[in-house]
Design brief:
- The structure is a single chain.
- The chain is α+β, with helices and mostly antiparallel strands.
- The chain has a single domain, classed as Nuclear Transport Factor 2, Chain: A, CATH 3.10.450.
- It is 20% helix and 40% strand.
- Strands 1-2-3-4 form a four-stranded antiparallel β-sheet, with helices on one face.
- A hairpin with a 4-residue loop joins strand 3 and strand 4.
- It is globular and about 45 Å long.
Length: 82
């Protein structure tokens, strides 16, 4: 699977999660992407203010895609200068 095919598949998964048929790369965007051997992983987000982000993992050996949806809960700052 090429990088572009993987990204397209991930965007389709996010669109299906929201039940939308028509979307653009501005609506669903890749935050982080890595490919190691035949495996791919991507973190995606949207412009929706719902705090959701998504993780797609493609296992090239098994030819399976795993899709996880997460909700941002909290952001805590730790001052390491003290």
């Amino acid at each position: 699977m090429t990088e572009l095919e993987f990204i397209s598949l991930c965007r389709e998964c996010v669109a299906k999660y929201y039940g939308i048929l028509d979307y653009s790369t501005k609506d669903i965007y890749v935050v982080w992407l890595v490919k190691v051997l035949q495996n791919n992983k991507a973190l995606l987000s949207t412009n929706n203010p719902d705090g959701m982000y998504f993780e797609c993992t493609y296992d090239g050996d098994k030819k399976k895609l795993y899709f996880d949806a997460y909700k941002h809960q909290k952001n805590i700052e730790f001052d390491l200068n003290k």
